Amino acid sequence: MEALLALAEMDPSLHLVWRRLGNPPSWQRPAGFETLARIVLEQQVSLRSAESTFHKLQQLLEGPLTPRGIVGLSAQQTRACGVSRQKHRYLNQLAADIVDGRFVLDRLPDMSDQEARDQLTARLGIGHWSAEVYLMSALNRPDILPFGDLGLLKGVEELDGGRYDDFDAIIRRADRWRPYRSMATRLVWALYLDNRGLLNLNDGSNV
Fold first, then answer.
1. 0.85 cut: is pTM over it?
2. Which end of the chain is more exposed for a tag (fewer CB within 10 A), N or C?
């Protein structure tokens, strides 16, 4: 609630969204390999498509996605679940890095935002968007702006009734939201979804 009250004072447009829609969903996810793997699956595809692929992988493994489980799958097996060859490589390398001890996911909560971001983006196939969505949704970091997120870009355009040429302009626009950019992002996402009749306020616990 502190973040929402502060944002309402910082940005009248966000205040109007909050008054119209109420508290946005948190879209919180559990920290761990399965969430990070699902974020990789969500890269550059619809959430519905990624969700279908994710559940097929769970069925194939007969349970949660684990590093050892993913390492044991062939490209042919994951392809049958809807995983592209490139994403198979990303998931397999991420899982191998964890199994072999090159990447300790459980250490991220003790790191600063930048340290955790650097650890994540050092992994094959995990760029700034994937790292920042993980920081925001799994580690509950309060001042994250998912770089390049299309819903955020379109949502801010609809928030302001204008057009932004690139994501750098969104970063500058969002500077006033510090240190609550994660909450501001949730409000903008809620606006974007509501404008398309897709907002589900029960999607994750509310603030």
1. yes
2. N
